[in-house]
Amino acid sequence: MKKALFVVQPDTFRDEEYFEPKKILEDAGVKVITASLKLGEMKGKLGRNTTAEILLQDVKADDFDAIVYIGGGGADTYYANADAFSKPAKEFFADGKITASICIAGIILAGAGVLKGKKATSFIDGKDALLKGGADFTGKSVEIDGNIITANGPTAASDFGKAILEALNL
């Protein structure tokens, strides 16, 4: 069974960016585990909640086939905890595993240095961070470059989930 790790910030993650790809993957038999900086209930911007089952610092790339960073209004959490969020991205990328982000969460991949020379997209507010991180910012709704999958926001959530599923060869 394939396993994907979804990473959310504790408050105001973007509901659609989390729940739509999660449903697509789970419907295809992928086990989705949620990680964050704390365990327990995480609150979505639109009112839906999820539960973080593993702490981000306890994540081991060997235990998963993909890592998926979810965007949303709590992006300042990403900036304030850059090392905590970027360490797993570096490990997954180095292992050749799917390393994905949607919306503003693309700044994590940029900060981790995994977008150098890669085509990538994000919410427009993240464009400068992606460029600074060496990405070729395309502005597309979903961008796939090797094991990197990025999407620009909530309207791309379903296509983002489908791209991850396809990359998992399911």
Separate helix tally: 6
- What is the fourth-level CATH superfamily? Class I glutamine amidotransferase (GATase) domain
Structural class: alpha/beta
State the strand order across the main sheet: 6-3-1-7-8-12-11
Number of distinct beta strands: 12
Total domain count: 1
Q: Which percent bin holds the helix content?
A: 25-40%
Give the averaged pLDDT, no decimals: 94
* Largest sheet composition: 7 strands, mixed
Q: What is the CATH topology?
A: Rossmann fold
Principal-axis shape equals: globular
Name of the CATH class:
Alpha Beta
> Which series of helices and strands comes N to C?
EEHEEEEEHHEHEHEEEH
Annotated CATH architecture: 3-Layer(aba) Sandwich
Query: Radius of gyration from the CA trace?
Result: 14 Å
Short description:
The chain has helices at residues 15-27, 75-80, 82-94, 106-112, 127-132, 157-167, and strands at residues 3-7, 11-13, 31-36, 40-44, 49-52, 54-55, 66-69, 98-102, 119-120, 136-137, 142-145, 148-151.
Description:
The protein is α/β, with parallel strands linked by helices and 170 residues long. The chain has a single domain (3-167), classed as 3-Layer(aba) Sandwich (Rossmann fold). The protein is 33% helix and 27% strand. The chain is built from six helices and twelve strands. It has helices spanning 15-27, 75-80, 82-94, 106-112, 127-132, 157-167, and strands at residues 3-7, 11-13, 31-36, 40-44, 49-52, 54-55, 66-69, 98-102, 119-120, 136-137, 142-145, 148-151. The strands form three sheets. A seven-stranded mixed sheet has the order 6-3-1-7-8-12-11, sandwiched between helices. Strands 2-4-5 form a three-stranded mixed sheet. β11 (142-145) and β12 (148-151) form a beta hairpin. It is globular, with a radius of gyration of 14 Å. The termini are close together.
